[in-house]
Specification:
Elements: H1 2-17, H2 22-45, H3 65-69, H4 71-74, H5 76-92, H6 96-108, H7 112-127, H8 132-149, H9 155-168, H10 177-190, H11 200-215, H12 217-221, H13 232-235, E1 242-247, H14 258-263, E2 270-276, E3 279-281, E4 295-299, H15 302-312, E5 314-317, H16 323-326, E6 335-340, H17 356-360, E7 362-369, E8 372-374, E9 388-393, H18 395-402, E10 407-409, H19 423-439, H20 444-457, H21 466-469, H22 472-490, H23 493-503, H24 510-525, H25 530-548, H26 552-563, H27 574-583, H28 587-612
Antiparallel strand pairs: 1-4, 1-5, 2-3, 2-4, 6-9, 6-10, 7-8, 7-9
Helix pairs in contact: 1-2, 2-22, 5-10, 5-20, 5-22, 6-7, 6-8, 7-8, 7-9, 7-11, 8-9, 8-27, 9-11, 9-27, 10-25, 10-26, 11-28, 19-20, 22-25, 23-25, 24-25, 24-26, 24-28, 25-26, 26-28
């Protein structure tokens, strides 16, 4: 037990600090559990342990510790979540969500109330049936554009977008991966999995309360960090970092390529575009041979510019560089914001180590992380989920970036590849998956896998798109933390924590203890992964309920709802990270807006569970 508690402590620290990605931490936990099993068994056989510590051997079963340790990969929860990612992607590629968003955008105008109501009213129900992270990623460009067109700060809409996707995910079993994992744990511990609409009635109540909060108190508390823009260069405060220079005839760089000229100096400068004979060129600029009279747009600071002018024979062009200047290379937008998406291959990389410029034929002008703006030495910054890059590129490059799962383009761009003819098919497949799982004895994993297969067979998805559809970091996170929950249960760790929890609330009514379980889980899930919170807290909740002689299923539901409502930190939930950069938020904004909402939900959810399911033992 001591080893398991030590492992949990280390895992919690790593989950909270993200020194390594959370999925890597989860796999490390699984490996540690597998590695310690044969060692402790051998010590017990030699009589060096008072009692064998089989951390993964279920009492009374013949299942080997190795199978238990790897059970996360074969878990019905893991496979169901994988299938749901595929279903969500099939729906996304039809463009139906974008069409719905566009319809609503025409109705909102410049009214903040209408915009906020449309944002919350659209993402909530959608998140009940497709992955809520995907829903936010799809709607983020639309919401940002609606705000700017209506002269409203996008910050006023993006945090509500994230929050609404979270409580909307509590409408059905398939709304979040957390619900699916909690259902499996409930089945194993209580013999009672969640049905498709098990908690929909409470989800509707929570959604109504959350929507009312966001339209009233939340509207007042959410800050307008990003001003409605006239252009992106103003939004990223680029006035002192963008300059145009002209190459003099006596310049030593005439005849060199742009790449050679840049490599000859260690100064922090990027060439953004080249104007020659009234033609504008974007990336790739490295092979271009410098000629006298060339006009280069540069990203650099004033001090570096002075050094550059002295070295390379350049003169400053006095006119300011703005969006119009940077976008004259084409008749379509070539200056955009890119958000680093969950599961992106660039997470942990720098612009230099990822060869961003050469890889994507795009120039990064600035980087925003929350309120922090980075416009110097950006090539040294390790990228995180939610980082927002101000990028200039050709139309073709932007189209490729928009189709790349590593990024979310934070403005609406033309997408001619939506499969709109497949909308009825994709919606019908999802409806069939939900209907079969809800109305028959077919397990959700079977229904979801059949739906994923149908997406491919009907052409909603191409076979090569299947692997891109899955958020593999979530899959490996689930596979890694499930054995930790088993270890916590079989070693008696969950019993011990439950004992302490019950002792800390002596003589309190069961409903207050239920509320306490919600609050503890909510605090934990704002620090670590929501899936890890469920794995750790549901065994504790079940044992605490048994000791109190009350309905254990009610306690499981409290943990499930609390784990999916991480409002108080940007790191508590992936959707919070997605809007962190585009909204320009501060860390404390989440606490200021999310803490009152979390407190309201603690009361509403606790009372709702007591009303719908009761606390008497079943």
């Amino acid at each position: 037990m001591a080893f398991v508690f030590l492992l949990i402590l280390v895992a919690l620290v790593l989950f909270a600090t993200e020194v390594v990605p959370v999925d890597v931490t989860a796999i490390a936990v699984m490996v540690a559990l597998l590695a310690v099993e044969p060692v402790t068994a051998s010590l017990a056989d030699l009589g060096l342990l008072a009692g064998p510590l089989y951390v993964l051997r279920q009492p009374g079963t013949d299942v080997s510790p190795l199978v238990q340790g790897l059970s996360g990969f074969a878990s019905t929860a893991t496979i169901t979540v994988l299938a749901m990612f595929i279903l969500s992607d099939g729906v996304q590629r039809t463009g139906i969500v974008q069409l719905l968003g566009a319809k609503l955008a025409t109705l909102t105008g410049d009214s903040e109330t209408k915009q906020l109501g449309a944002t919350v009213g659209l993402v909530g129900p959608i998140s009940g049936f497709i992955n809520n992270t995907a829903a936010v990623a799809i709607l983020l460009p639309m919401v940002t554009d609606i705000a700017h067109e209506g002269k409203i700060s996008p910050s006023k809409l993006l945090l509500p977008l994230s929050y609404a996707s979270m409580f909307g995910g509590m409408l059905t079993l398939i709304g979040t991966s957390t619900n699916i994992l909690a259902s499996q744990l409930s089945a194993e511990l209580l013999g009672r999995p969640f049905s498709m609409f098990e908690f929909t009635q409470l989800g509707v109540v929570v959604t109504i309360v959350g929507t009312a909060y966001l339209l009233t108190v939340g509207r007042w508390l959410v800050p307008g960090r990003i001003q409605a823009r006239e252009d992106l260069t103003d939004e990223f405060e680029m006035a002192d970092y963008l300059t145009e220079v002209v190459v003099r005839e006596d310049s030593p760089i005439v005849g060199q390529t742009v790449q050679e000229a840049l490599e000859a100096t260690d100064l922090d400068v990027d060439v953004v575009q080249l104007v020659r004979d009234r033609r504008t060129f974007l990336e790739p600029l490295g092979p271009k041979v410098v000629q006298a009279g060339d006009v280069f747009a540069l990203r650099t600071d004033r001090d570096t510019l002075v050094e550059l002018l002295d070295l390379d024979g350049l003169d400053v062009v006095p006119d300011a560089v703005d969006d119009a200047e940077l976008e004259r290379a084409s008749d379509r937008q070539n200056l955009v914001e890119l958000v680093v998406a969950p599961g992106s291959s660039l997470v942990g990389e720098t612009l230099a180590s990822s060869n961003f410029r050469q890889r994507y034929d795009a120039s990064v002008l600035a980087l925003r992380r929350g309120r922090e703006l980075v416009r110097q030495r950006m090539d040294r910054v390790r990228l995180k989920v939610g980082d927002t890059l101000l990028v200039q590129a050709t139309v073709d490059s932007i189209d490729r970036l928009d189709g790349n799962r590593d990024f979310i383009v934070a403005q609406e761009v033309e997408r001619p590849d939506y499969r709109e003819s497949k909308i009825p098919v994709a919606v019908g497949i999802v409806a069939a998956v939900v209907g079969v799982a809800a109305l028959t004895q077919v397990h959700i994993v079977v229904s979801a896998l059949a739906g994923a297969l149908a997406m491919v067979l009907t052409g909603c998805l191409r076979p090569q798109e299947l692997y891109d559809a899955v958020q593999w970091d979530v899959i490996f996170l689930l596979a890694g933390v499930i054995p930790l929950g088993i270890a916590l249960q079989v070693t008696g760790g969950a019993d011990l924590i439950a004992d302490l929890f019950v002792l800390a609330a002596p003589g309190l009514p069961a409903i207050l203890v239920l509320g306490g379980m919600y609050v503890v889980t909510a605090v934990l899930t704002n620090i670590i992964s929501n899936n890890a919170s469920v794995v750790l807290m549901i065994p504790v909740a079940v044992e605490a309920a048994r000791q109190l002689g009350v309905n254990a299923f009610a306690f499981v539901l409290a943990v499930t709802f609390a784990a999916s409502t991480a409002f108080m930190t940007p790191v508590g939930y992936q959707t919070n990270l997605l809007v962190y950069g585009p909204g320009g938020y501060r860390f404390t904004d989440y606490l200021k807006v999310g803490a009152p909402l979390q407190a309201v939900f603690a009361v509403v959810t606790t009372l709702g569970i007591a009303f719908f399911w009761g606390l008497a033992p079943s």
